[in-house]
Write a structure and sequence with these properties.
- The complex is a heterodimer of chains A (119) and B (406).
- Chain A has 119 residues and is α+β, with helices and mostly antiparallel strands.
- Helix content of chain A is 35%, strand content 34%.
- Chain A has a four-stranded antiparallel sheet with strand order 2-5-1-6. Chain A has a two-stranded antiparallel sheet with strand order 3-4.
- Helices cover 69% and strands 0% of the residues of chain B.
- About 3% of the residues of chain B have low confidence.
- Classes of the chains: A alpha+beta (119), B mainly alpha (406).
- The interface between A and B is medium-sized, with 20 and 23 residues.
């Protein structure tokens, strides 16, 4: 089954509350996670995103697309990374999501729409 | 495909010459380039098994030419595939091209009708002999996307009516400038993470320098790459976090590459007006020659940035001159120069101004303002390595008393 794990957060928030050692450990975890997911054959693709501060939102306004600064959701935390993974079952994707949540606090897991029905 | 670096080196060395030979006979860049690419893949598969042919170039040209005529004759792609395994018993007849067409090929791949990403991709494939998969992997995009980009680039060259000739004298210096820019972009693309791309940029620039030994800026570009790449091992920690120049362990710098870069510069500097690559290489050389940051000849670096700003003005040069100025006259002088960039449109959407300002504020002892700059810069950068570096820098400036428990 293919799922997307979406990680939410804010680089600004992280720098305000976390000590440097925590940031180093978090970086090491994320790097190792990507290596492990490739080794296990579960990684389809993934990407880290720049902080939401670098985002622009484009809205159709009066029939014209208008770009404004900032991410779509007004929340302090926005999408900062995602993984599309092909895993055995839901339990496995929740296990991976749980590991990520230990560092990022908030993770969304969603099946891909084109996932074939399980036989 | 092959793990043998000698075979890979030979195939990639002869790739542009084989393509040049085919182009002289048949003149169709798109089809010839595909045929050479297929011949390279055949070489990757066959040479480890059958041994390296007596004349690798003749082998490549013959195989590519058969692919080409097969392609033209075949009624269907299926038939071509069926023949693929049977073609390759090749006599050792050497075509011995009279010209080294590699230079013409470089100009063609860096044709001004193409976008920069297309110029990069096509140069790496047609001149560098990299496969589409390797190029896609290096730029972290899917292979199908890269194949399409290369295919469209070749169509654009055809549409622009470009022939397989060196550009006329009137266009030559501008076209050479584009070729150098493409090679420098490949180098920079590899600089942070992809050592293989950096090595390829240096290899191709060496090739260009061999073809044009009288062009001082080509020598300058090669020197700049060597002098910059010499710091590779010291530039990041094992986890990828960047180490700024001032804190690098200089014993890890590659002394041999530094010596080669300086020798190149010594041969060319002073023979005519210095161009931007020579000047940047000269600045890199001053850094590389210093045993520590404190022993760096900052007044000379400042003077060189002054010349560079005159020859090739731009906000990035001003930014770097501000760093040198801060080292010579103190952080406040550097900060004052940075202030002149505040209204600059191209600086408004990058992290670089804030990152440099953070450093100078930190040196000036204004810790709170420095931290704010690092934080803003970390939020703006799209480089993971730089974000890590800036986030750590910001976090380190926060006093322990301010750290909230989590």
């Amino acid at each position: 089954m293919k799922y997307m794990i979406m990680m939410f957060g804010s680089a600004g928030e992280m720098m305000d509350v976390k000590p440097p050692e925590w940031i180093r450990e978090m970086i090491a975890f994320m790097q190792q996670l990507d290596v492990d997911l490739r080794d296990s054959g579960e990684m389809v693709f993934n990407a880290g995103l720049a902080d939401g501060a670098a985002a622009k939102t484009v809205r159709l306004t009066g029939g014209l697309p208008v770009a404004t600064d900032g991410p779509y959701a007004e929340a302090k935390e926005s999408l900062i990374g995602y993984w599309v993974l092909d895993v055995e079952n839901e339990a496995r994707i929740l296990e991976i999501a749980g590991q990520i949540a230990e560092w990022s606090g908030l993770v969304e897991v969603r099946p891909l729409a084109d996932a074939p029905p399980e036989v | 495909v092959t793990q043998d670096p000698r075979i890979e080196g030979l195939l990639r060395e002869f790739a542009p010459q084989a393509l040049g030979a085919l182009m002289r006979r048949h003149g169709q860049f798109d089809a010839c380039e595909d045929a050479v690419q297929e011949a390279l893949l055949a070489g990757f598969l066959q040479w480890p098994r059958d041994g390296i042919p007596d004349s690798p170039l003749a082998w490549l040209v013959t195989v590519a030419e058969r692919r080409l005529t097969d392609e033209w004759r075949s009624e269907s792609a299926r038939r071509r595939r069926e023949e693929t395994d049977a073609v390759l018993d090749v006599p050792g007849r050497a075509p011995a091209p009279e010209h080294d067409d590699t230079l013409t090929l470089l100009f063609l791949c860096c044709h001004p009708a193409l976008s920069a990403p297309s110029q990069l991709a096509l140069t790496l494939r047609a001149v560098g002999g990299l496969t589409t998969a390797e190029i896609a992997n290096a730029f972290l995009i899917p292979e199908a996307t890269m194949a399409q980009r290369i295919s469209r680039a070749k169509q654009s060259i055809k549409a622009a009516g470009a022939g397989f000739d060196l550009p006329p004298d009137s266009e030559r210096s501008e076209r050479l400038r584009v070729v150098m820019q493409v090679l420098y972009l490949v180098f920079n693309e590899g600089y942070l993470q992809r050592a293989d791309l950096t090595a390829e940029a240096i290899r191709l620039t060496r090739l260009l320098y061999r073809l044009l030994p009288g062009e001082h800026e080509v020598a300058g570009l090669l020197a700049l790459m060597l002098l910059t790449d010499a710091r590779r091992d010291a530039r990041s920690e094992p986890d990828g976090t960047l180490v700024p120049l001032a804190e690098q362990r200089r014993e890890l710098w590659d002394a041999e590459q530094i010596a080669e870069g300086i020798a190149l510069l010594t041969q060319t500097l002073g023979r005519g007006p210095a161009g931007p690559y020579q000047l940047q290489a000269a600045i890199a050389a001053v850094h590389d020659e210093a045993a520590s940051e404190a022993e760096t000849d900052w007044p000379q670096i400042l003077a060189l940035y002054g010349v560079l700003e005159h020859v090739s003005p731009g906000p990035v040069v001003t930014l770097n001159r501000a760093v040198a100025l801060a080292m010579v006259e103190g952080p406040r002088a550097g900060l004052a120069l940075l202030d002149t960039l505040d209204g600059d449109e191209s600086m408004a959407h990058t992290h670089r101004l804030d990152a440099v300002r953070g450093h100078l504020l930190e040196r000036a002892g204004d810790i709170a303002a420095a931290r704010d700059c690092y934080r803003r810069a970390a939020r703006m950068t799209t480089s993971v390595a730089e974000r890590q570096y800036l986030a750590l820098r910001a976090a380190a400036l926060r006093g322990p008393a301010e750290a909230r428990p989590t």
